[in-house]
Specification:
By secondary structure, the protein is α+β, with helices and mostly antiparallel strands. The protein has 19 helices and 24 strands. The protein has an eight-stranded antiparallel β-sheet, sandwiched between helices. Strands 17-18-19-20-21-22-23-24 form an eight-stranded antiparallel barrel. It has a two-stranded antiparallel sheet with strand order 4-9. It starts with a helix and ends in an 8-residue tail after the last helix.
Length: 624
Amino acid sequence: MKKFYTLLITLSFLTLTLFSQKSDPRSIDSLVIEPFILEDINQSIDSIVDFYLNKEEPIQGAVVSIVSNDSILFSKGYGLANIDTQTAFDPVKTNVMVASVSKLITTTAILQLIEQGKIALDQPVSELIGDVQIENPFDTPVLVKHVLTHTAGFDDYSIGSGARSFNELESLRAHLEKRLPPIVWEPGKYFNYSNLGMVLMSYVVENVSGTSYHDYLEKNVLSPLSMQNSGFAYEDKSIKNMMTRYKWKEDDNGNLFLDNSYGVKYTNQIGAGGFQTTANDMNHFMQMYLNNGLYNDTQILKSETIQEAFKPHFYYHELMNRKQGLGWKVGTSEGVNYVAHAGDDTAIESLVVLFPESNLGYFFASNNNEAFELKYKIRDFIVNQLKGKERNLTSSSHTSSSNLESLTGTYQYMNDGQASIERLFSYLFGDVYNVENNNGKLLIGGENYTEIDDLLFQRDEKNFLIKFLVDKKGSYFTSGYATYRKLSSIEKPSLHLNLLIACFLIFVLSLILWVIRYFKSKIISKPKLYFGLSIFSLTLFFALLAAMTSGGNPRYGLPPIFYLIFTFPIIGILFSTLGLSSTFKFYLNQSISLFNKLHMSLVILSIVICLMIFNYYNLIGYYF
């Protein structure tokens, strides 16, 4: 997200450049992994982690833990938590940031309140948040289970999500009053991951319990689980032991360097992120869930509550391996059932996976995003040792009745930026897939998919499923944990980019032409004056935005000057309206050449197109 708005501006004028990653000559898949023996698994985990510690762009360190309900089977630190001080990763001492794994802590608190009868899964959230308002244009109310399964339909964006220091953090209520996004998708219909939805659940904990979110967690979750080095408060003692975040970057000459400037991650999205902990503390958390909610003779959750949380509550098709429980993602791989949650942020990687049927839990955390693949490699290693019989989903008897051609087109991730200025970023830089008909199969992201059930497609040679949904509003496809919407022909970002480039070329050439003619005749007509001022306002909007936001980070909010900057499109509309009101006489004037009239028509059309695109990306108004 860094240099967020600078990228937005340059994209309006420049074509995109593809960057290729440097590949490592070695392959992690070529490693020989020893069999999974609970009494001695050091060599296997060491071999996997060692590969990533010695890559061309290595990770700096990580912690790995594997537990049963009553024993710590493996817990070890690798590499350095801080290079400058040469502090090693330690599962007991090192505080790690876990990003979205924080949601499991909030989920646990919500489950407790459900047990106490203070909350119900089918209860509208609006009944639990006092006078905090949810903007919902649909008849279907947002229920607690919708938020816990990420199906509430919230828009999601990151402006103002962070703080530069502990003292700048906002309260849950203040942040929600300022940043809670509207509902943009019908509740209960689509899975769309929502950070701010889980922040809302944190506020529910606070509002329903009558105590602060932090105090509730300390009393009812952290203290009973002996998680003494965990929390959202970032006390001095934990910051002193906090891992340092590192990210590989390239300088202007293409040379790699390690950026360690990120510091502590302060977030206003408390409960969705922001949890800091240790591997040892997370061991206790996993053991409680594996032991039917019991830890050190204290019942944190009831057994039936945990079973309910681990049960799929939302999925697109029963055959799909990716389903959503209450807070927990429910998955199956190689015949092994598990529940999990991952965390990803700048220089933060984390993962919690529980295998309830095998009485195993796995925790991972690292201070470098190069560990994204590593955390899943270790998970897959565990799965491989536990694997059962893989389901054969392919059915030769299924006859496709779907019109594959109607499913083809450009699909885009539908989670972020529908109602804010972040739409420009998500639509120009977000995940986009072209779906094509490839001789009776669908080609998605370079992979062929065969239909095995109505609108359910399986990737060739891999047990990975995609489900298509079709309704009166359009077509969608989903892997289970993300949903993509088919763009209409006029919504495609490539079209918008080309139109904007064309409009601005016309703007610039017209301004130059009109200025030259003014100095020759010392006369300018009202339409040219008004449309010239409109063009100038729209162009100045982009120039000022680029100048004021270079190197900025919207996570910390936008400066007040943005209100001035975003006034220029409104000024452009005003002058365009004045220009249109004076064009009648312009076109009736017989002394004005046909060329000038056609040119004026082209200018008006360009302004209208530009404003339509601005409006589509929420750039007209103060949507931030």
